[in-house]
Design brief:
Elements: E1 3-7, H1 15-28, E2 32-37, H2 39-45, E3 55-58, H3 79-88, E4 94-97, H4 101-112, E5 122-128, E6 134-138, H5 148-164, E7 173-176, H6 187-196, E8 202-206, E9 218-220, H7 223-249, H8 252-273, E10 281-284, E11 290-292, H9 299-314, H10 317-328
Parallel strand pairs: 1-2, 1-4, 2-3, 4-11, 6-9, 7-8, 7-9
Antiparallel strand pairs: 5-6, 5-10, 10-11
Helix pairs in contact: 1-9, 3-4, 5-6, 5-10, 7-8
C-alpha cells in the first residue's frame, strides 16, 4: 500500500481542510496517510471512524509562511521537516504539503536528494487549454536563475512526466521564447535550444499563447519567468470572471442568459480553470515524490494533491527521467 506523508499543519487555514481532504481521499482510494503535526489537534478534527485508517507522527513546530526557507533545515521538529524525513527514510513514498513552498522545496531537495543526472529540480504546474487537456509548464519557481543545462534537464523531466503520469506517448516539448523562429530568444534560451534539439519531442521555440492552445504538452522555461507566468495567468483568470459578473449585472438579457448557461457553461468553465482540480505542483528531479499545494488549498485541493502523489508514486516517472538522461550522458 502506498504511504503518503502529509503536512497536516501546513496551509493558510490550518489543519482542518487538510484533514477533511485526507478523509475525502480515503473515501475514494486505498492508501495509508501519515499525518504529521500536533497529535491532539489532528485527532480533534479526524472523524473517529478514520482513526485506525491513518498514522500520526507528532510534530511540535510549524514553519510559518513568513519564515525564511533556509531556516527549515534547522527546524527539525517542524511538521514539514518530519514529513520530508519520512520519505528520506523510506517510511513514506511521497510527501504532500500546502505549507511554506520554499521550505518544502529546500527540504525535499536537500534531505530527499536529487536524481543522479539532475542538477536542479523543477516545480511543474498544469495549465488549462482550449482542447480540454492540460499542458505542463516547468519551472514555475524552484530555480529563478537557470543555466542552459537546467532547461535541458527540465525538458527531459517534463517529457518523462507527461509520458509516465499523464499517459501521452509522444508529447510535444517547446521552449518558451519571444518568438517561434529558431533565431529568437535571449542568451539562455538560445543555448538551451541547442541542447534540447536532441530531445525526440522537441518542437522548438513556442510563445505564450501556445501554453493554452493544447498543441504543446510541455513548456520549458526558467523559474523566474515561469513564476511570473503562473501568477499572471491566475490574475487574468480572476479578472475575466470578475468582468463577466460586472457586465452580466448591467443587462437584464445577460442576466437571463447567464441563468440559462450557469449549470452547463459557467460551472464547466470554472471547473476547467480551478487549481483545486489538480491540487498541487510536483517537484520533478528529486529522488522521491513531493507535491506542493497552494497555501489557500481547500479540502478538494488536498484530496487531488494526494491523488497526484499516488499517480506519481505508482508510475515509473523517476526511472523514465533517469533513462532518458542516461542516454545523453
Amino acid at each position: 500500500m502506498v504511504k503518503v506523508a502529509i503536512d497536516a499543519m501546513g496551509g493558510d487555514f490550518g489543519p482542518e481542510p487538510v484533514i477533511e481532504g485526507v478523509v475525502q481521499a480515503l473515501e475514494e482510494k486505498q492508501f495509508l496517510p501519515i499525518l504529521v503535526g500536533d497529535r491532539e489537534e489532528i485527532l480533534s478534527l479526524l472523524p473517529q471512524y478514520y482513526t485506525n485508517k491513518v498514522k500520526i507522527v507528532d510534530a511540535s513546530d510549524v514553519i510559518d509562511m513568513a519564515d525564511q526557507a533556509t531556516n527549515a533545515l534547522k527546524r527539525k521538529e517542524s511538521s514539514i521537516y518530519k514529513a520530508v524525513e519520512l520519505v528520506r527514510n523510506k517510511e513514506a513514498d511521497a510527501v504532500v504539503s500546502a505549507g511554506h513552498s520554499g521550505a518544502t522545496m529546500t527540504l525535499a531537495t536537500l534531505r530527499i536528494g536529487r536524481l543522479p543526472h539532475i542538477s536542479k529540480p523543477a516545480l511543474a504546474t498544469f495549465m488549462p487549454t482550449v482542447k480540454g487537456s492540460r499542458s505542463l509548464v516547468l519551472d514555475v519557481g524552484a530555480v529563478t536563475d537557470c543555466t542552459p543545462q537546467n532547461l535541458f534537464e527540465f525538458g527531459y523531466m517534463g517529457e518523462a512526466y507527461v509520458q509516465s503520469v499523464m499517459g501521452r506517448s509522444h508529447p510535444k516539448v517547446g521552449l518558451l521564447s519571444n518568438g517561434e523562429e529558431d533565431s529568437k530568444g535571449n542568451a539562455l534560451t538560445k543555448e538551451a535550444f541547442k541542447l534540447l534539439d536532441g530531445l525526440d519531442g522537441f518542437v522548438g521555440n513556442v510563445e505564450g499563447g501556445d501554453i493554452f492552445s493544447g498543441e504543446i504538452d510541455v513548456i520549458v522555461t526558467d523559474g523566474f519567468t515561469g513564476n511570473i507566468l503562473l501568477k499572471t495567468a491566475e490574475g487574468v483568470q480572476s479578472a475575466i470572471f470578475t468582468l463577466m459578473k460586472q457586465y452580466i449585472r448591467k443587462s437584464l438579457p445577460a442576466k437571463i442568459g447567464a441563468l440559462m448557461m450557469k449549470k452547463k457553461v459557467f460551472t464547466s468553465m470554472k471547473k476547467e480553470v480551478d487549481p483545486a482540480e489538480y491540487g498541487g505542483a510536483p517537484l520533478l528531479g528529486i529522488n522521491g515524490c513531493a507535491i506542493i499545494s497552494h497555501g489557500s488549498s481547500n479540502a478538494k485541493a488536498i484530496k487531488n494533491a494526494i491523488f497526484q502523489a499516488l499517480r506519481y508514486t505508482e508510475s515509473n516517472v523517476n526511472e523514465r527521467i533517469e533513462a532518458l538522461l542516461s542516454e545523453k550522458a
